[in-house]
Every structure is written in C-alpha cells, then in structure tokens.
C-alpha cells in the first residue's frame, strides 16, 4: 500500500488555513467598507462529512473575519482561531487539548505562514494554487484550487484512507 495513504489513514485532526484554502484568497470590499468572501459549497459538505465521521476539524487563520466566523459556525467546526501569528503554537495547543499527536494531524495550507502548521503535522497538504514554496514541501497537492473544492478533495481522500475501511 502507498505510504502516504497509510499516513492519511491515521489522521484524526485536519487543520485548515482560511484565506486561499476555504476561500480562493480574494478579498472583496463593499462600498461601505465591508469585507465579503466566497466559500464553496462542496468544501462545506466535505467538512460536514468529516465531522460526522468523528474527525476533528480546526481553522487557524492569520486574519480576522466575521464572514469566516459565520461560515465556521454554520458548518459546525468547533475550533476556530483567528488573528493568529503563531500558527504552529496554536496547533500544538489544540493537539494537546484533543489528545492528538502530530501523526494524527494533517494540515492544509496555501502560503508561507502555513509552514508553521506543517511543522506540527504528520501529513502536509497544499492546495493546487498554493505558493511554490508550500507546494514543494507538501506531501500531497490537491488537483483543485483553494476555495474551489480543495477541502472537499482532502475530505474525500481522508475518508477513503481511514484505518479500518
């Protein structure tokens, strides 16, 4: 069996960046100065499937966004961290809280700040349109760009690789 699939079968915690992963990275400002972002429905379905199957899902973002908070709440993701400068430390604290090891953790990112997540994860994942530096060190790069179904692609992969399936 493929070594990556074996590693993916051990994953119980998926840590996601937000901008460029759950969204396509575009920021839209209304004339009133309000930020608007788009989230793909397939990504939402993938997250819900993971949660239903007992996976832990966390969003760890360097920016703050009310829209992100609303989307995360709507999806039922229990772990949201915004305005984070030390993503690795936040992930480590969450792993300790949930009694998850790095080998049970996958991180999906799109740009250099997500390298701190990679350092704490047993499996490193990048979206198709991630920065080249991240793609070069990721163990798996999605076929789908961020905000366009990449999270769903990872959810399907994690579910297919689960130990015991």
Could you walk me through the main structural features you see in this protein, from its secondary elements to its overall organization?
It is built from 7 helices and 8 strands, in the order αβββαβαβαβαβαβα. It is of the alpha/beta class and 165 residues long. Helix content is 38%, strand content 16%. It has one domain (3-161): Rossmann fold (3-Layer(aba) Sandwich), CATH 3.40.50.1000. The strands form 2 sheets. Strands 5-4-1-6-7-8 form a 6-stranded parallel beta sheet, with helices on both faces. Strands 2-3 form a two-stranded antiparallel sheet. α1 crosses α7.
Strand content: 15-25%
Give the biggest sheet.
6 strands, parallel
Tally of DSSP β-strands = 8
Count of DSSP-assigned helices:
7
If classified by CATH, what would the architecture be? 3-Layer(aba) Sandwich
| Span of the ends, CA to CA | 13 Å
What is the fold named in CATH at topology level? Answer: Rossmann fold
Fraction of residues in H or I helices: 25-40%
How do the SSEs run, as a string of H and E? HEEEHEHEHEHEHEH
**Looking across the biggest beta sheet, what order are the strands in?**
5-4-1-6-7-8
CATH superfamily: HAD superfamily/HAD-like
Which regions have little confidence, pLDDT < 50, spanning 5+ residues?
none
What is the class in the CATH system?
A: Alpha Beta
Overall shape: globular
Radius of gyration: 15 Å
Q: What's the rounded overall pLDDT mean?
A: 95
Integer count of domains: 1
Structural class: alpha/beta
List keywords for this structure.
single chain; 165 residues; alpha/beta; Rossmann fold; 6-stranded parallel β-sheet; two-stranded antiparallel sheet
